[in-house]
Every structure is written in C-alpha cells, then in structure tokens.
Amino acid sequence: MRAPEADTPAERTESQTRRTESQTGRTESQVRPRLLIRDESGRAATTEVPAVPAPTAARETVFDVRDVSVFYGAKRAVGWTTLRIYRHLITAVIGPSGCGKSTFLRSLNRMNDAIPGFKLEGQILYHGHDVYGGGVNRVEVRRRIGMVFQKPNPFPKSIFDNVAWAPRNLGMKSGLSERVERALRDAALWDEVKDRLKESALGLSGGQQQRLCIARAIAVEPDVVLLDEPASALDPIATASIEELMLNLKHRYTIVIVTHNMQQAARVADRTAFFTLDPAERVGTLVEYDDTRTIFNRPRDTRTRDYVTGQFG
Amino acid sequence: MSAIVDAAAPLTPSGNLRRRLFVSQLVSGASILASFVAVAVLALVTYDVAKQGASALSWNFITHNPVGLAGGGIASAIIGSTLIIIFATLIALPVGVLTAVYLTEYAKPTSRLARALRTALDLLQGVPTIVVGLFVFGLMVVGHGESGFAGSVALSIVMLPLVARSSQEVLLLVPGTLREAADALGVARWRAILTVVLPAAAGGIVTGAILAVARAAGETAPLLLVDSLANPTQTQLLIFGHGVPNIPVLIYTASNLGIPEAQARAWGAAFVLLGLILIANIGARLALARYRARLGQ
Fold it and tell me: Which of A169, A172, A210 to mutate to test the interface with B (most CBs of B within 10 A)?
C-alpha cells in the first residue's frame, strides 16, 4: 500500500504532476524501440534514435528486449519493458525491492520457466534469436547465458569438482584442469585455493564461495553472465573483490547485474536501467535506461533522481 | 494481576512463573521418560534374544547346515536370506529411488499423477504383508512352484514404499539452489540429478534403504507362502526355480516343533538375524562415509 511517492514530502498536486511526468517517461521508452522494430535494418537504426548517446552506434546488441511483460498467473510482475543490452558492457539493473528487477533478469535466460504460472509477453531477442521462440531449448539458452545468484550456492563437492562439473557434463573434457585453473584465475580465486582444490567448497568463506560460483559460471565460457545481486550477502571487502573481478571480466563477457546497491552500479556499470514499482498498478516498470553517468548525474525522470539521490524509501 | 513490575523486587520467580516452571519441568520429565520406555523395549527385546540365542550360537551354528530335526547349524538359511534380501534390494532400490526422483524432480507440484502416486505408495505401505505374499503366490508360485526369487519379489514390494517415501523426504531436503545452480550452467536436468542432487541426498537414501532392508529381512508372512518349501540341508546359491531356505521361515518352523532343542535353534537364528541387520547397517554407513570422503564433503 505504501506508494513510493508518499515518502517524499510532496503535496498532492505536485505528486499528480509527477505521475503525469512518469507516464510520459514510460511512453517514451516504449515508443523509441517501436521505431526500431519498424526499421528492419536493426543495429544501424540505433543511430536514428535521438535520446541514445552517440557511442551506442558502435555497440553490438546482445539482448533486444521488446515490450516485455512478465506475468505470474494473472499478475503482471514486470510491465512493458523495452531496452537493449550491449556486448562487452556491464549493464546494471537497479531499483527498490519488489520492482521486478530480478524477475526481469531471470527472464533473460529462462530461469523463470520453472515457476508455476510464469508467462512472458513481448519478445526477447538474443543476437536476433527469440529466446522464447519455438524450437528454442532452455538448456541451450543457459549454456550461453550463465547466471550467478544472490546467495552463493556451490555444490557439496570439492572446489575443483565445482568448477569442473559443468565442463564435464557438457563434454569439454580435454584440458579440464587447465580450464579449471583459468576459470579460477579469472575469478581471482586461484591463489587462495590452488593448494586445496580437493577440499570441500563448503569450507570456503562467503566471498570465496561467490567467486567460486562465478568461476563455475565462466568455466563453460558463456557469452553472457547474469549476476543477481551477487554481493548483497557479502561484506564490503568481498564485495570490492567481486566488483574488481567484474571489471576484469567485461572484456570477454557481456555482464548484466541486478543490484540493490546504487554505489555498486555507479562503480562498475557502463549502462544502468532503473526499475520501479508503479504505485498505481503495482507493476514493475522500467523508468529510465541510459549510460550510468547520465542516470546518476543527469537523470531525466524525477523518480530516478529521487532514487539515486536517496530521497526515496 | 498487575502488568506493572516492581523494579525493586529480587530477580527470583514471582507470580505464575513458579507454576509455569513446574509445568515445564513436568513436560520435559514426561518426554524423557517416554523416550526411555522406547529404548527400554528395544533393549529388552535385544537382551532376551541375545540371552536365549547365545546358548545356541557357535561357530558350527553359523557355518554348518542342519542335521536331522534339531541338529547342526543354519548356514543354508543365512546364505538364503542374504541372497533373497540382496535381490529384493536390487529390485526395490532403483524403482523406489526413481519413483522418488520423479515425484520430487520431474512432477509439477500440481500434478495429479504425482498425487495419486504418493497416495498409492502410502496405501502400499499399509498393505498387510500376508496380502503381498498372496499376490506373489498367485503371480509366481501357482503353476511354477515356490522359489527364492518369488520371496525376493514379495520382499521388494514390502520395501518399495519405504525406499520411495524416505528417498522422497531426503530429496526434498536438497536445497533448490543447487538445482538452480545446475540449471544456470546449461547442463541437462538428468545429469544434475545424477551428479548433484542424488549424491547430496545419498546419506538419507542409504539410511532409508537400510531401514527397508531391516524391515524386509525379518518379514515372515510372504516367505511362508512363496518360499517355505526348501531343503535346509542343502545350501542354495541360486534363488531361481526352487525354494531357498531362509531365516524367518526357519525361526517359524523351529519354534513350532515343540522340541526344546529346536526352540533354542530358533532363538539362535533370531539372534543371527539381528546380527546380520546390524552388520548391514554398519557396512552401509562405512560405505557412505568413504563415499563422502571421496566427494570431499
């Protein structure tokens, strides 16, 4: 019941104005990509969109999310989201609790499929292929789009076997120990665990476990790594190491990170999407999506400004 | 009763706290007593069997076959029972575990088939074992004759719901985050089940299997129907096509003979049966410990 606007000391008239503003904001983000859909040339069309900064032209689109709504049963959890995620950039998704940012992220690699009543409207194109299209296998989707979760979830196996598990099961058996070492090095964990690869992964600290999970995800060399609040259960030092690791990994992987922590988004992300819970309809909606600097310094939407300046719940 | 606490009063129990403390002690005392009763029954049974059976027990008793009505040992029955149980486990364990895998890993929570299956397992667990014996008698013995294997099938039906239910319980305890982690790596579900979920649940599955073995090892009713005609003086290493001597039937017939020597043999056989179950239990736990050490848990 607690509408976000109610937290700000605004008069009723003022908040009404704001709602109109936000409505425009949404329409804007809806209309822009529609122009793109009409234009079949896809990537080249990006330059024609006025609001997107110039450098975007050179960027390769990995995800083209077109007017996506996610439903759990009859309830629309995420509504009318349209955005593009670009190759070898870190894209952050921020917003208050319950705004649907995790739901959105999990829709990108079909992790929501197992949830009863899950339904998706609109289209998510991954390198031009519909992620939810006919003939698409979700195991193959996840093979290319890996995911790391909020709570570290290593298997009850040895450190080595955790990283080697997916390569083994995917038939990448040659050079397995080199592959494991590379993944652990990339995840900045090698030096800490190289002498105890055969010990249980459950004996590692929380931060180490999370880096192990990242190593496990990149051991199969996916194209995209989705991170769902990967540092929210970690202390600041472990968080810092995860952030540093992301910056190192972005040259080879496309990274999408959902985070509660605005500073974290500001530190690591190239692009930031701000979601909020539409107070009237209780639907998670994309408010603004832009370069991280723009989102934090010159947000166009008042709701974004309120959120990133901390004037919001 | 006033809600206001006298701040100056000493910190000793006051008001109805004294009564509440008394009730608390009463409840904890009663529960301790109840658990003692349960253990005492087990101890009494074991003690009685050990006392009565120990006199019959000797090296000869477990390594030689019977001679006459009440002489010699029970080696053929020990071997027969072991073989029957092994085959019963070989049938019940895979079917039971796979049933549990279906119920927990593949069936949707709303699945009617899964609900029907769970109910069927509960019903099967409640079916009197003599009925199971009759069923197998009609299925395998009529027209074919008794056999040790018919006994194995009957015992596997007794074991199946126990194995399936206990496996299901432990599979439910395996955190969903492990399945999610495996899914997110783009590995097919069955591989995740085989190499992550089942190993994580191995401890509970083995414990359930041991309980089922213990339960089936002493099951007499079905064996009386489908595997009671055997020549105990001959050791059978094959359980197909003919009756195989076994411990429960031996205990039953020996205690019915009315000869003191035979009754002593029955007690001895009961003691051996308890010992075998204990050995199976310890063996399975050792195997599990080694398996866990190898997994690095």
Answer: A169
What would the pLDDT profile of A160-210 be if each residue is shown by its tens digit?
999 999 999 999 988 999 999 999 999 999 999 999 999 999 999 999 999
Interface check for A217 against chain B (CB to CB < 8 A): the answer is yes
- Which pLDDT score is estimated for B93? 96
Interface of B with A in 47-66 (CB under 8 A): none
Exposure b/e, B6-28, CB count within 10 A at least 16 = b: eeeeeeeeeeeeeeeeeeeeeee
Q: What number of other Cβ atoms are within 10 A of residue A67's Cβ?
A: 16
Say whether A147 and B184 touch across the interface (CB within 8 A): yes
Q: Which residues of B are less than 8 Å from A213 in CB distance? A: 181
Domain boundaries, chain B: 71-294
Please tell me if residue A165 touches chain B, with a CB cutoff of 8 Å. Answer: yes
Whether chain A has a CB inside 8 Å of the CB on B191: the answer is yes
Q: Is A260 in contact with A287 (CB distance < 8 Å)?
A: no
Name the closest residue on chain B to residue A220, using Cα atoms.
B185
Measured CA to CA, the distance from residue B164 to residue B172 in angstroms comes to 12
> Would you call B297 and A217 a contact, using CB atoms and an 8 Å cutoff?
no
Bridge partners of residue A227, in order along the sequence: A148, A257
Which pair of structure tokens corresponds to residue B102?
Answer: 């279906």
CB A291 within 8 A of CB A278: no
- Residue B229 near residue B146 (C-beta atoms within 8 A): yes
Average pLDDT, chain B: 90
pTM equals 0.78
Could you tell me if A167 and A179 are in contact, meaning their C-beta atoms sit under 8 angstroms apart?
A: yes
What pLDDT, in 10s, does the model give residues B284-296? 888 888 877 765 5
Option in B185, B295, B296 nearest A220 (CB):
B185
Superfamily per CATH, domain B71-294: MetI-like (1.10.3720.10)
Phi, psi of B124 (to 5 degrees): -60, -40
* Cα–Cα nearest to B48, from B289, B278, B276, B267: B267
Pairing of strands A224-228, A145-148: parallel
Is B155:B88 a contact under the CB 8 Å cutoff? yes
Span A46-54, average pLDDT? 40
The contacts of residue B279 (CB under 8 Å, 6+ apart) are: none
A-chain residues near B180 (CB < 8 A): 111, 149, 153
Picking from B173, B180, B183 by the largest number of A CB atoms within 10 A of its own CB, the best residue to mutate is B183
Amino acid B294: pLDDT: 64
Chain B residues in contact with A153 by the CB 8 A cut-off are 175, 177-178, 180-181
Tens of pLDDT, residues B5-20: 778 888 888 778 888 9
